[in-house]
Each structure stands twice: as C-alpha cells, then as structure tokens.
Amino acid sequence: MFMRFATLATAITFAMPAVAQQSETNELFDLLMLPDIISIMREEGVSYGDTIGQDLFAGAPTAEWAATVERIYDYEVMEGMVRADFGASLEGEDLTPILDFFGSEQGQMIIGLEVSARRALLDDAVEDAAKDAAVIGLADENPRMMQVVEFVDINNLIETNVEGALNSNLAFYAGLVDGGAFDGALTEDQILTDVWSQEPEIRLSTTEWINSFLFMAYQPLDDADLEAYIAFSQTEAGGVINRTMFDSFDRLFTGISRSLGRAAANEMTMQEL
C-alpha cells in the first residue's frame, strides 16, 4: 500500500516517551521483529517502484529512477521513523500484557511464522500458491481458515488495510500534482473520485492477500496457539498494539507514496524534454 527521502529524514520529530518506557517500547519493537518486517517492506517497495515506472513512463524505467526509488525506500530512515512513531503512539500505555504475550515462547513463535511467511511471499510463485490454497481453504471451510477469518475480523484487518491503501493512493496522486504532472488539469474532486473508484478492486486484492498470507503463516500452529492469539487480540492490550502498528505504518507509507508521486512526476517531465 505504499519519494520523500529528504522529508522522511527530517520527519522524526515525535516526542519521545520517558526513558523507562522508551526502553520497553524498544524491547517490544524488537520482539515484534519490526526491523525484519521493515526490511521486507523495503524490498516490496522497491519492486513496487519498478512496477510504477513500467506503468507510467513512456520508455523503460531509467537507472536514475531505480536509484531514486532505492533512496526513498532507505531502510535506516524507514526504521528510524517507524521506531519513533511507534514509541510516541504507545506513550502512557501499559505495555506489560503486550510484552508478556509477545515475549513468551508462544508469542515469538507466532511472530516468527508471520515474518517467515511475509518474506516467502516476495516470491511470486509462492504468493500464487498461497492464494490458491486460501481459496480452497475458504471453499472447503477448512477449520484453520475459519480461525484465520475470525482473526482477520476481530482485528479489523480488511478495513484498516483498505483505508491505508486508499490513503497511500491519494498521497501518490497528491505527489504527482505537487510535481506538476498534470499541469493543474486534475482537480481535487477528480482525484478523490478516481481513488475511490479503486476501492472495490483494492478490497478484493487486500482480502485475497491477507487470507493467503495468514493461512500460510499459521499452518504450523496448534489450534490452541492460534486461539490464544485470537483471545489476546480481543483484549484492550491487543487492540492497543493493533492500532499502533497500523498508525505507525500508515503514516510512513502515506509519506513515501507522496514522495514517490513527486519523483514520478519529475521523471515524466524529464522524459518529455
């Protein structure tokens, strides 16, 4: 769902929590394996940037475009921004139940499976196979898939991901406009209409991806382990960390998308010269 390299580099201005809680939020950040997730998201983003280049530009994406995408998806900047925003979002929250769950052997096993599955899905063939398996699982009302559906519903994963994707698409358009891609010919209402028209397709692809990702990730779990995760998600602590994760990454990728739009506008202008 997801160039604002210079802006991202100066955007880490969130108030930092007190020292004691900052230590806890850093511990939680690492327990959730967010550095690994951000690294994978960076790879996804670079691939997405190449796709944008192929779709938007008259010719093949240039080496300069590839270098721009690499700079925008700078790992250190992404990790620093998410870590700072993560800490600020959790300021004042009781982190003990969250640390207890994700710091347990069970919690670390679950997070490890999620990260492994996310990394595996970088391979298109693996992603296609995972989607096929999820479709069959839904059609057969596979018990594990039914647990996944419950988990997705409790955590409101479809709605939040669709919202994030729409925000990112809107930000990309805004970046194109900022960069002069349309010479002022595209109004705000036209942009909103176009972005909103994408909602059904985004909802379908989001649902498909989330179901396939989680069905693949949670295959090795015992039913009791996944039920424990579902139960935790229904607690106040589970809701806090779920919202924090989405807020942190939504702000990051909205910013990246706007920067990506500006860079695309610049590339389009250069190709026209």
Automatic annotation (TrEMBL):
The protein's superkingdom reads Bacteria
Can you name this protein?
A: Uncharacterized protein
